[in-house]
Write a structure and sequence with these properties.
Order of helices and strands of chain B: HEEHHHHHHHHHHHH
Radius of gyration of chain B: 23 Å
Order of helices and strands of chain A: HHHHHHHHHHHH
Number of strands of chain B: 2
Strand order of the largest sheet of chain B: 1-2
Largest interface: A-B, 90 and 91 residues
CATH superfamily of chain A: MetI-like
CATH architecture of chain A: Orthogonal Bundle
Helix content of chain B: over 70%
Strand content of chain A: under 5%
Number of helices of chain A: 12
CATH class of chain A: Mainly Alpha
Oligomer: heterodimer
CATH superfamily of chain B: MetI-like
CATH class of chain B: Mainly Alpha
Distance between the termini of chain A: 34 Å
Largest sheet of chain B: 2 strands, antiparallel
Largest sheet of chain A: none
Shape of chain B: globular
Strand content of chain B: under 5%
Shape of chain A: globular
Structural class of chain A: mainly alpha
Number of helices of chain B: 13
Helix content of chain A: over 70%
Radius of gyration of chain A: 22 Å
Number of domains of chain B: 1
Distance between the termini of chain B: 38 Å
CATH topology of chain A: MetI-like fold
Chain lengths: 265, 285
């Protein structure tokens, strides 16, 4: 009997699927340094001009700045809302607890376009006219479930004995939270924060309804550019996002561990 | 000293959710109104006219049907492509292989929708590497963008990491020793898998498939970019309604109908969860 519980055929099938997953990423990276939108082998030349184009194009630059500002607001804000509420869901017993955790995750089930149209309609009614705040609020709603899921999973895995020990040694509840609980939440906050960050940068289907003349963001700008031009500037942008996600994955592996992320349901 | 009251911990969440549900309620109300022609405003009296119009429109009915059919195809493809990968990842003794698969899945997952939609436009385009290879071998080229092929392929690619990571958790909860026991009593590898692991993984397979279906049905960006205006999924129809006429009441009614269809699989899961765990028992999720 072989040592492996599966056949070579399975390995082969899985390898094909992995290739299917990887090919687009490789083609984007290749295209970002190609002289034209035509993907050709072997390459005619290698150029970095699309990266230059991306950073020099004023529309892309404005969109990049807006996206970074929105994420810089949304990521910490979402975590700040998610941490206390995850604590309540895991550690406290109160009427409506199950309902609360279901409601907190409910935006996940609503299609992005529906959320976009609903907020477009709602903000027009309430008279809120700032594209920035509209986008930021919608993104907090959309990303909260990601943060709460990651934090609840981490909290459920914590050993209560550590906190009890701190309390027995005379620490106040607040001191215990700050010096014992919070540091143990680091991996959950990192995993949750990364999902929030990526979704906030990447979201298109909701945000496309909320951008205006003054406030564009990266995803919507990339879409307009793809519609109007046929050159690899968007490949350069995509290459930057892919490199960023590789860095984030290493952060995740280093500080939270892949296995833990998988375990967190 | 008493612990912090629960309300203190959850009020920020309640405030955000309150505004979200207020927006959805206002939205449901708007869907009953009528647009004042030539303006972005709307008025009563309230009626179900917009719903009747949507169901009467051949365009909307076709988009709804196409969306359901494509989402089923995508879910099917995710099962066929995703199951082997999840199984290998759950059972492989090699930590390197497990980490490598996980790395590919997460990088794909984190690199974002726009990136992947554009990547597929390049890969499948008439001047892309796939058609380049076909030409190289003297074969006729195939049109894969601005039609369903490109839309379905790109969405399969989008949902696959979600599907695999969800199923993976379920397969890992099935003890490998069960399969080994079957093998040592003479079952072939395939028989051991088919009669032991596969049935035990059904509850996980169901949740992963419903997740894939939910993600597929809400696709918007992929049909927008790879469909080239020729493939209308329901989300795109709503977007076009807003873009072309700014008829918010009609768009709201379409979005409400869409929301119901998108929530159906989740309701179905809750209905069948009990009978699933009774029949297949043992495994969590």
């Amino acid at each position: 009997m072989s040592s492996r519980p599966y056949s070579p055929l399975l390995t082969f099938a899985a390898a094909l699927v992995l290739m299917f997953l990887v090919v687009p990423t490789l083609v984007i990276l290749y295209s970002s340094v190609s002289p034209s939108a035509r993907v050709q082998f072997p390459p005619e030349a290698v150029t970095l001009k699309w990266f230059g184009n991306f950073f020099e194009n004023s529309q892309f630059r404005d969109a990049l700045v807006n996206s970074l500002l929105v994420t810089a607001l949304v990521t910490p804000l979402t975590l700040a809302i998610a941490v206390p509420c995850s604590l309540a869901i895991v550690r406290r017993r109160f009427p409506g607890r199950g309902l609360l955790s279901a409601l907190a995750l409910s935006p996940l089930a609503v299609p992005g376009v529906v959320i976009g149209v609903a907020f477009l309609n709602f903000f027009a009614w309430t008279g809120i006219d700032s594209g920035f705040w509209k986008i930021a609020f919608a993104l907090v709603v959309i990303t909260l479930p990601f943060a709460i899921r990651a934090l609840v999973a981490t909290l459920e895995g914590l050993d209560l004995a550590l906190e009890e020990a701190a309390r027995n040694l005379g620490a106040s509840r607040f001191q215990t939270f700050l010096t014992v609980t919070l540091p143990q939440l680091r991996s959950g906050m990192l995993a949750g924060g990364i999902f929030v960050f990526v979704e906030a940068i990447d979201n298109f289907s909701t945000v496309v309804f909320l951008t205006d003349m003054r406030t564009n963001v990266l995803s919507v700008q990339a879409y307009s550019y793809i519609r109007d031009f046929n050159d690899p500037t968007v490949s350069a942008m995509a290459a930057i996002l892919i490199l960023q996600s590789v860095v984030l994955v290493f952060l995740l592996q280093r500080f939270a561990g892949f296995e833990k992320v998988i375990g967190g349901k | 000293m008493k612990p912090v009251p629960v309300l203190w911990l959850i009020w920020p969440l309640l405030a955000v959710l309150g505004l979200f549900f207020a927006a959805l309620l206002r939205f449901a109300d708007t869907s009953l109104l009528q647009q004042i022609p030539g303006t972005a405003m709307f008025e009563g009296p309230r009626s179900l006219g917009n719903y009747a119009d949507t169901f009467a429109s051949p365009l909307a009915r076709k988009a709804l049907w196409d969306t359901l059919v494509m989402s089923l195809q995508i879910t099917g493809a995710a099962i066929v492509l995703g199951y082997p990968l999840a199984y290998l990842m759950a059972r492989s003794p090699s930590k390197f292989l497990r980490n490598a698969i996980f790395f590919v899945l997460i990088v794909t997952f984190l690199s974002g929708g726009i990136t992947r939609a554009y990547a597929w436009m390049l890969v499948l385009g008439n001047n892309g590497p796939v058609n380049g290879l076909l030409r190289e071998f003297g074969l006729p080229t195939v049109r894969m963008v601005n039609n369903r092929t490109g839309v379905v392929l790109s969405i399969v690619h989008f949902v696959l990491p979600f599907f695999v990571l969800t199923l993976l958790g379920a397969i890992r909860n099935i003890p490998a020793s069960l399969e080994e026991a079957a093998r040592s009593h003479g079952a072939s590898r395939w028989a051991a898998f088919r009669d032991v692991t596969l049935p035990l993984s059904v509850p996980g397979l169901v949740s992963a498939s419903l997740l894939a279906f939910t993600l597929a049905i809400s696709s918007f960006l992929f049909p927008l970019l790879l469909g080239g205006g020729r493939v209308q999924m329901f989300a795109n129809l709503i977007y076009d309604k807003i873009q072309s006429s700014f008829d918010m009441p009609a768009a709201s009614a379409m979005a409400m109908i869409f929301l119901v269809f998108a929530l159906l699989p989740i309701l179905a899961l809750n209905l069948i969860r009990g009978s699933l765990s009774r029949r297949f028992g043992g495994t969590r999720r």
